[in-house]
Amino acid sequence: MTTVAWPTLSRAAPSSLEWALISNTQTFASPLNQSVQTLEMPGARWRFSTSFESLSEADAAAMRTFLAKLRGRSNRFTAWPLGVKAVRGVATGTPKVNGAAQTGTSLVTDGWTASTAGILLAGDYIGVNGELKLMVADAASNGAGQAALSFEPPLRASPVDNAAITITRPLATFMLDEDASSWTTRAPSLDSFSIAATEAF
Q: Looking at the DSSP assignment, which residues form a beta bridge with residue 96?
């Protein structure tokens, strides 16, 4: 199994994008009064479907090559939230994980520019440990450049101390939802592509 990089296109923004976080839950309904309990389990994952309309010849060639290399669901590829250009927070410094054995939906970090409000904002995406996370609360750094980050989904594994925090195009690893790789060509030789994929780990 090979991991393929997302192609570099002259028009990076897709024509349309649906991005989803799929939680892993089970529900149980009481046969007596129909009250419902929900059990959350590990394994929340990202899914997206996107389309690129009327690509240039060079971009279309890059997409065709990318899809061919994936060999359907045989291989994997890395991608970031394609519709997001950059974080909205200040996001300066060289952020790293501050301390090992951290789990859950929060992370103590350091290496940020000291004493900065809004170092990251709710809605920003970050990457850690090869996992893509969505900030769910604003974060500020203290005088030592430390910041506590709150995000979803939960960490699947504890990152090591001093692991880098990615704030520019944080990646997740995806697998196509089906084996068929196809595209549409319309006159005058403009190709359109639609891709649906789910995070694989």
A: 110, 164
